[in-house]
From TrEMBL:
This is LysE family translocator. The lineage of its organism: Bacteria, Pseudomonadati, Pseudomonadota, Gammaproteobacteria, Alteromonadales. Keywords: Cell membrane, Membrane, Signal, Transmembrane, Transmembrane helix. Residues 1-25 form the signal peptide. It comes from the Bacteria. It is found in: Cell membrane. The keyword Nucleus does not apply. It is a multi-pass membrane protein. The keyword Cell membrane applies. InterPro entries: LeuE-type. The chain crosses the membrane at residues 44-64, 71-88, 141-160, 167-185, 197-217. GO terms for molecular function: amino acid transmembrane transporter activity.
Length: 219
């Protein structure tokens, strides 16, 4: 792969990562809910999904999906249902993110400590799960790789070039959403966002549901 081709790949990956959508909403929610660590975990779990799509494209499976509309539509529907489920959860949340952070912290008893530890483990799992799932089941990302990314496969004429095709989008995606998590978790920013946590929950819920509807309508 030539340096010029890689620069084109880099530019497309940057534009794709910075495009607002459900991935951004998910990183924002986990950053506000669990802090910087959970936001970064969600970011890199998301980037693993991006890397898997890049690998699928490299192996030529993207062409198979494009020629099998029933498989493609099935994945798109699963993604839409997942987006809708997350949207409903966000709309149904009570008290906003600040109350979630305070849950289980009302006493110093051993049971409270156990509940807090369990809550932390559940939040860690949820951040990784949602980050990976939102990338794997987001039809927008699938279309991105089918329509734009596959053109760079022909330029990968060596193992090094193939590695660039997989790791460039993975690293760019992870770095971008890590940057988002770092900015949002800054001491001067986080309290202001947490004060608007209930509104953020509702807005992210509406966005996710609208995206789900859009996916279903355009299949």
């Amino acid at each position: 792969m030539s340096f010029t081709a890689w620069l084109s790949l880099l530019a497309i990956c940057c534009l794709g990562a910075m495009s607002p959508g459900p991935s951004l909403a998910m990183v924002v929610r986990h950053t506000l809910t669990g802090g910087r660590g959970k936001g970064i975990l969600c970011a890199w779990a998301h980037s693993i999904g991006i890397g898997l799509y890049a690998l699928v494209t490299l192996l030529g499976l993207a062409v198979v999906l494009k020629q099998a509309p029933m498989v493609f539509n099935g994945i798109a529907i699963i993604g839409a249902l997942y987006l809708a489920w997350m949207g409903v959860k966000a709309l149904g949340s009570k008290g906003g993110i600040s109350d979630k952070l305070d849950a289980g912290n009302g006493s110093d008893s051993a049971s409270s400590t156990d509940l807090s530890a369990g809550h932390s483990r559940a939040a860690t799992f949820a951040a990784a799960r949602d980050g990976l799932a939102i990338s794997l089941f987001n039809p927008k990302i699938m279309l991105f790789f089918l329509a734009l990314f596959s053109q760079f496969v022909m330029a990968a004429d060596s193992l090094f070039g193939q590695s660039l095709i997989v790791f460039t989008p993975l690293i760019i995606d992870g770095l971008w959403y890590t940057f988002i998590a770092l900015i949002l978790s800054h001491p001067s920013v986080l309290p202001k966002l947490r004060a608007k946590a209930a509104i953020i929950d509702k807005l992210s819920g509406v966005v996710l549901i609208l995206l789900a509807i859009r996916v279903i309508v355009t299949i």
